[in-house]
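Dear colleague,

Thank you for sharing your sequence with our group. We've completed the structure prediction you requested, and as agreed, I am returning the results in plain text so they can be pasted directly into your records. Please verify that the sequence below matches your submission; if there's any discrepancy, let me know and we will rerun it promptly.
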Amino acid sequence: MKDTFSSSPANGAAARSDLMVPAQGSFTRPRRFDSASKPQDKDVDLVLDNSTTEPVIAPYNNQDALTTAASRDLWDLLHLQEPGTDQHILDGSQAAEDFRETEVSRAFDLLRTRLRQTIKQNGWVNVAVASPTVGCGNTFIAANLAASLSRVPSSRTVLMDFNMRNPGLAKTLDMDASQSGDLRDFLAGDVAISDYILRVSDTLAVGLGDKTHRDASEIMQDPATAASLAEMRASLRPDIVLYDMPPLLSFDDTAAFLPQLDGVLLVSDGTQTMAKHLAECERILDGQVPLLGVILNRARASSIERF
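Please find the predicted structure tokens below.
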């Protein structure tokens, strides 16, 4: 599944600096931080000369790529994939329409509005949804929050499945993750933005995953990951990027990704999360990134105050 752009510059090798965008034909960029594939004196990338089928060595400058990406809005170039009808979160099914009338949906709308106010006040973009332990429902929370955010007119939300231990966003949204590139390759810089991120609507895009990676923590800390995400934000210009993360206390993946975040929403399960779990999460986050709030999931009905 590749995008094709028509371009005929006089010098094909010198005209490409926004290398997260596929060029004519099949385009794959080599890993930016692989020193074995580059000369020692300067960073380079392989681009495709329009006049030949041979790869041409051209300088790669990350700042130039970000500057060029910022001048080109790629949102409308993303592949569109509609969610299936076997989900109740995104528009397009009767179940979704029925869910909108529930108190749970209204609670997500309240959370959405408070979150939008907070990130706008502070100029933030990157927010993680995490939980202390497995099974707290943070994928459910992240998907519903993203759906609520996407209902704000003229907004843009990107939802990323960053749980590389057990990706579940595609199943929750009834979408096909095999129709896009692999998350690992995207973060390494080998897959273009428009070949990985899928657009669900005019206001929502998602990054899905269907493979597990045992070295997820190392991927999170790779400088290439930070560079790829920065290029994505520059090219798609989202109001907010939500990251569905693995459990904070089960793996070190989320802790390793904290430097890339502006805030964390912590999901607490009313049936299993203990006070000591929350305290340990707060200790990990302390001094690293703000804890934006604790969301109580699966609370007893008798404990919910109604207005």
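Summary note from our side: The radius of gyration is 20 Å.

Kind regards,
the structure core
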